[in-house]
């Protein structure tokens, strides 16, 4: 029965939803086939003769420690139902663990369905349960429901924590509502009860950078420096990368120097962003200096660093040099990825060497690398230029 119903599941992350109450908790009703499946599944299970699982507390804890890893929606529903039938029934912690594992697999609609079943079964949520639920709604671009869950915290006498508000800020950013995300952060800062942490600040910094608002990101960085929550490497890396992408390399290098003076050590991500920035400006000497500097600090280039170099060299028509970088990667046991090879293909196509580009394409296939639409477009454009 379960397998038959599972075949009817359609992956749906954005279906029409309404809220109803399940023993004091908000439940999601949806017209998605996932919810139809869940309702049928639980109806089927509850129609069977009930045989409670008797166990001592020690036996009860065994499924928590030794439960199979949840890798599919079917796994989650099976484990959930097994735990639901245990007597005495496990605490909300066990059910929350199941929801958490499923959320990590990005099956957000399924998490909401299981949460609703918890409400039907009279299992009240804790802070962690509601945080998971908010996160799922945020990823489904349903901020209205996320904010409804926030209201439910207070109705249940629970206190939202910094993760709650950080998740909501991220949800606003996912919907490109940067102003509302910033407003929520300011409310946290003024409220006093739940102060933002470095992850909260970093989330909003990333949002500003994604919008190309580097000045707002830097202003937020300065606020962090003035307060108790000092910016870390991730925040600096985010802004440096954004500045480099906008070719504001001098500003990025100044921020890099400032970071170093404060005792924050750069990593390969920092240097890769800077190298990408200077390469875009054709500043090869500076790129070489940064490469030598990072190696001298025992920070070795990774596939992303090398891919930046290959891409820049190919766009400058320096394909022979790009081939040398790829050879260097292989010698260092760093496998070129799809991005690396596509840059090389593009370089060959720009020179009219379509045969070499085709060879790279076939090499990618032989290595089992993902050949995406960019790769095909590169090759097609190459053939079109030669009118083949």
UniProtKB/TrEMBL annotation:
Keywords annotated in UniProt: Repeat
Database matches in InterPro entries: PPR_P_subfamily (IPR050872), PPR_rpt (IPR002885), TPR-like_helical_dom_sf (IPR011990)
Pfam family for this entry, one: PPR_2
PPR repeats: 126-160, 161-196, 197-231, 232-266, 267-301, 302-336, 337-371
Protein's UniProt keywords contain Repeat: yes
Superkingdom of the organism of origin: Eukaryota
Keyword Repeat attributed: yes
Family, similarity comment: Belongs to the PPR family. P subfamily.
Protein's name in the database: PREDICTED: pentatricopeptide
